[in-house]
Write a structure and sequence with these properties.
Blueprint (H helix, E strand, L loop, with lengths): L6 E4 L3 H12 L4 E4 L18 H7 L2 H5 L4 E3 L1 E5 L9 E2 L11 E3 L2 H14 L3 E3 L3 E8 L2 E8 L5 E4 L3 E4 L6 H5 L3 E3 L5 E9 L13 E5 L5 E7 L4 E9 H4 L6 H9 L3 H7 L3 E2 L4 E4 L3 E3 L3 E2 L2 E3 L5 E2 L7 H22 L4 H4 L3 H19 L4 H7 L4 H9 L11 H19 L1
Parallel strand pairs: 1-2, 1-11, 2-7, 4-14, 11-21
Antiparallel strand pairs: 3-6, 4-5, 8-9, 9-10, 12-19, 13-16, 13-17, 13-18, 14-15, 15-16, 19-22, 20-21
Organism: Limnoglobus roseus
InterPro entries: FAD-bd, FAD/NAD-bd_sf, Flavin-dep_Halogenase_NPB
Pfam family, one: FAD_binding_3
Length: 415
């Protein structure tokens, strides 16, 4: 029989490529199975600065520095009345080069990351379908695949890493997915060439979060290279898709509901189709079982508001890879060993979840900074992706206080 890989990774996106590369760096044999041929379209274009440390571990920082991707130094919020918050400049927290990150075109970035995995010795197989993950009870026993040439094959690795994104092969099979009743959102977006950008080196690549004037949703505004901007609206699914309007009609209806967006894209040219997604907030009840692990969107996805998707993909992929490497060396492929990283990861994910909830409850960033200027560093920590440390937890009571104050003001205004 042909020698079997130590690990099979399903999916070549950021979580899968990260796990595969780190496992190869540890000296393990890895086969990565990708259904599509790269490059391919994917949403999720904005990095958080804390991804720097994993990019450096992957050997990707110099590749990013020499790329065409737009440099990102900050994030800024625009409220329903058009008032702009002070920019949250990441370098104010840490004057290290890690405080500058990037806005990427995922088709280009994901291919660079996948080729980087190959350079470390990962056996990358594109246009390869996973037909089934085989189980004996809860224990993974193999993966049935159909190769690019149409031949079927069964791989029997020690561990399977499911990085298959929202299709989440294992989570669906084992019925592990749970939705978040507080976050039943949907999105409609497209891409525009020639839209307005903020002036100045530190603002031109900023992510903008712009609230609708009826406060029922928000727009993202993400500058990319080649003079293109990603523009999308997020709101309650039942509100966005309240009638049989087309994606284009929904998008422009909400543009009229956000003058700050309308002003920015006026005179620009749309250069892509209108795209939609919904029912994207969920989390699996566990991250691992005997011989298998879930990472990235296959484990869960939160919300696009703070651009956490890539950070959580990188982080879960790296944490899982280290636990798998320990498992191989100890010959222990139990759920306890393979999932030992899960509690710390979920704690960090739940911290940013609290900030997501706060935004939809009416949290005002400007009001918070004015009332609690000494806590701005904690908010900035959350916005840069550094939410895996306990010190952040002291921000929650002040944050709740500002939400209560803003709610009282709204009640008085309508009384």
């Amino acid at each position: 029989m042909d020698k079997q890989p130590d690990v099979v990774v399903i999916g070549g996106g950021p979580a899968g490529s990260t796990a595969a590369t780190i496992l190869a760096q540890h000296g393990h044999s890895v086969t990565l199975l990708e259904r599509e041929k790269f490059p391919r379209f994917h949403i999720g274009e904005s990095f958080m600065p804390d991804t720097y440390w994993i990019l450096r571990r992957l050997g990707m920082v110099e590749k990013m520095k020499t790329s065409d991707f737009v440099q990102k130094y900050s994030v800024q919020f625009v409220n329903a009345s058009g008032q702009e918050s002070q920019p949250f400049y990441f370098f104010e927290n840490n004057p290290h080069e890690c405080s500058q990150t990037w806005q990427v075109l995922r088709s280009e970035f994901d291919e660079i990351l996948l080729r980087n995995s190959e350079s470390f010795g990962v056996d990358v197989r594109e246009e390869t379908r996973v037909l089934d993950v085989l189980f004996d009870g809860d224990r993974q026993t193999g993966v049935r695949i159909r190769n690019k040439d149409g031949t079927d094959e069964t791989l029997t690795p020690k561990v399977v890493v499911d990085a298959s994104g929202q299709s989440s092969v294992i989570a669906h099979r084992l019925k592990l997915r749970q939705t978040d009743p507080k976050l039943q959102k949907a999105s409609v977006w497209s891409y525009f060439k020639g839209a307005k950008r903020e002036p100045g080196k530190f603002d031109v690549g900023a992510t903008l979060v712009l609230q609708l004037k009826d406060k029922k949703g928000w727009f993202w505004y993400i500058p990319q290279h080649n003079d293109v901007v990603s523009v999308g609206v997020v709101a309650e699914k039942t509100d966005l898709f309240r009638d049989d309007s087309s994606a284009e009609e929904i998008f422009w209806r909400e543009v009229e509901n956000c003058p700050a967006i309308k002003q920015r894209i006026e005179g620009s040219e749309r250069v892509d189709v209108y795209r939609t997604t919904k029912d994207y907030t969920y989390r699996s009840t566990r991250c691992a079982g005997d011989g298998w692990v879930l990472v990235g969107d296959a484990f869960g996805f939160l919300d696009p508001i703070y651009s956490t998707g890539l950070q959580l993909a990188f982080r879960s992929g790296s944490m899982a890879a280290d636990a798998i490497s320990e498992a191989i060396k100890a010959n222990d492929f139990s759920a306890a060993q393979l999932g030992k990283w899960g509690p710390d990861f979920v704690t960090g994910m739940d911290r940013i979840r609290k900030l997501v909830y706060a935004f939809y409850e009416g949290f005002n960033f400007g009001a918070f900074v004015r009332k609690y200027p000494h806590h701005k560093r904690h908010i900035t920590d959350l916005l840069i992706g550094d939410f895996f440390k306990d010190a952040i937890d002291e921000v929650w009571e002040p944050l709740a206080d500002v939400i209560r104050s803003e709610a009282e003001k709204r009640e008085m205004a309508t009384a």
